[in-house]
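DNA repair protein RecN (Runella salmonicolor), 560 aa
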Amino acid sequence: MLAHLLIKNYALIDHLELTPDPQLNIITGETGAGKSIMLGAIGLLLGSRADTKVLYNPAGKCIIEGTFDLSGYFIEHLFDEEELDFTTTCLIRREISPTGKSRAFINDTPVNLESLRRIAGQLMDIHSQHDTLLLGSNEFQLQIVDTYAQNEEILRHYHADFQAYRKANQVYNRLIAEAAQMRKEFDYNQFLYDELEKAKLQADEQEQLEQELMILENATDVRERLQLATEYLDNPEQSVIVFLKNAVSSLNAISKFAPQYEQLRERAQSVYIELKDLAGEISDEQDNVEIDDTRAEEIRERLNLFYHLQQKHQVKTLRELLAIQEELETKVSRVLNLDEDINKAKAAADKAQAKLQKSAEKLSHSRKAVMASVEKQVKTYLLELGMPNAALSIQHTIIEPSESGIDDVDFLFSANKGIKPQQLKNVASGGEFSRLMMVIKYILASKRKLPTIVFDEIDTGVSGEIAIKMGQMMREISKSHQVISITHLHQIATQGTAHYFVYKDNSSEKTVSKIRKLTFEERVNEIAQMIGGSKPSEAILQNAREMLQAQSGVKQTNLF
């Protein structure tokens, strides 16, 4: 349950703290005093989006903080799944900075809005006037059936199976689409691949052939130059090597006279040996140079093939062509193996669909099993709320598997005798909607482990004895759930175990919404004003006092 609520710098609220009673909390106040503002702040704790427009002081930070007592509520698994620390005292905080940045924390650990909604949604249920409008929605009606049937675990398994089926089906459909497209391109890709494969490309071949062709095209000049270089170096009669050999002999004759002469001789000898090797290699290269027009033409043809393929595929190197060849091979190979891949994907999708169908049927059976009971209980409690001829019929249809199952439900309602039940949005008035929603919330309260339930003017459109019965329903719910009810009806206000009054304080330069817990006498005066206006008579005051005394002094029993 909600043990403590702190609201700072939100809308008309500068600073507000509330410590609700564990049972039935009544909140009253004039229209516009700030009751709905307080609900908006609580909505932020449940994951509602917000912006800087909610800041009371645009320069300050908005903080909404709720402390929840989770004793007796077995929801540790949710915290484990979200990787959050669990304690029986849970602190949830939302912060909105002046820049519009919003942050959420659970037990001082930052969380995203999805995680916040998942956790907080198990701590509080807020019924607003918007929910009454939602009652006409088939999706909302299906949620009512699921809550009554306590289908949370079955739904979790169904959603997992649905996601698995959808993923498997997406893989299968994607393969089918890819196959159609790839088969259109198969012949062309096969032709391109065959052309590249036939060329038998090697990564470094182009550079080697270009170099070889350069030599072949200049073979005569190359041979002449190599021969001339050889003669300069190693002519038997007059050459560099002959002169160098003589120099070595001269230095050898004096090398014994001083160390420096020996060093000069060694250097000259080294140069002599190196030049002899160089002359030999140049001679060998000269012998290797051939004038071969046939070989040159072969290389030109081979290089022209490379240039043609590079231009065709808009690349500059053989390595890039080889990469394209590998890619084409993959595409061609994949098309050739498509049937096998598609068959595997189809088998996986069929298996996932069969598992989904089994889960869907289990969920559907659980829903159908409780529909008659929901219809009966709604009729019973509406009778107590002054609608003796009301009837609710749940129309059920099997549909294709969707996110919510294979069931479509439609609540058909009639409030009057002899009138055939029709869709809720077509037949129910405001007061009838309120009573129907109250009955549904009352029935579902025993099916859920929600610590706190908030009713925002669920009594709209009712009065008198019916309002008393609705108040008693809330009192009954508060025996197992903490209830917070915003109301304008004194019949409901008298049922509270605690009463809070929301009001506007205009004593400063800027209006501020505040809340205070009423004492017994203050409650008497507030109830009397709700009955007889701002200046209630002594008789009305006495009536209000007796009503409160009756509620506080008489032990409540099971309602119906």
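The two ends are 25 Å apart (CA to CA). The chain is about 55% helix and 15% strand. ok done for today
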